[in-house]
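User: Teach me something about this protein's shape.
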Amino acid sequence: MLLFEDTTSITSEATSEAASETAGFDWAAFWKSIGDFFVRDDGTGTGTGYLIRVAFAIVIIILSYFVIKLLMAIIKKAMGLRKRGPEIDVSAKWFIANVIKAVMWIGVAFLVVGILNINITGFAGVASAITVALGLALQDVIGCWASGIIILNQKHIRTGDYIHIKNGLGECEGTVVKITFLMTYLKTPNGQEVTVPNNNVQKAIVTNFTKLGKRRVNYDVGVAYNTDIELAKKVLLSVVKGDKRVLKDEECVVYVYELGAYSVGLRLRLWTKVEDYWSLYNELSEKVLLAFNKNNIYIPSSTDRAVSQR
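Assistant: First, the predicted structure itself:
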């Protein structure tokens, strides 16, 4: 019981002392010392106060914003980034422009530190530890960034290319919209946007359908076994004859590629420009159907298969 009373007495005395110290704190002197910090001489012997240095640094940051904005406009105009329309190397140009902008802002940061006369040697150890921690935490991000540099440097994928990407995570295809620091953006034929990390693109098997400027069309159709094959081949060739989208200097042929269970597989093979591929391919089914009906060439259906299996 005595021990409890003594402890209570000591605690009460400590609380009262702390309260008295707080009550006696000179807040006016505290705020005055803060004010004096900014107006006193910075120790360089120039008579310049810290407040003046801070104001000067703010002015430098504001001026740097407008100067960098002007320089970036000049750089973008020189690189053709202001123009509308497809540019095969536009992603690489944007990448370079963003790097230049980042470097300029880093230079402004060092300039401001110099104006404020801040000694950063004490932060070296802390900065190193933070760098190591960030490197471990952001290794995937750094990998994407490095892969983006490799992709743009190799130039096997460019903005506007139609590509197919296949790796262990899956596969997708579409037109390259842009390549940023971390991601490659694709637009699929049905209007969807697909975002692929650059490190996955770098590790994937990439098929570029645009690189050579032309693309082969393989159109397959089945006909009945009692069909005049030579007539069917001539009809298929007549469907694309005279079409300006078909390249004349490339081979255009029709051949039997399969003897199926219920039909003879014919393949129409031709070449066209990349930009004409989908429009030409999508029109072939209707044209082939109309031409076959006109020449009494029969295309077996699922109904015929069901009847033959009975």
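Now, about its shape. Confidence is low (pLDDT under 50) at residues 1-8, 18-22, 84-88, 306-310. The longest strand covers residues 170-179. If you'd like, I can walk through any region in more detail.
User: That's plenty for now, thanks!
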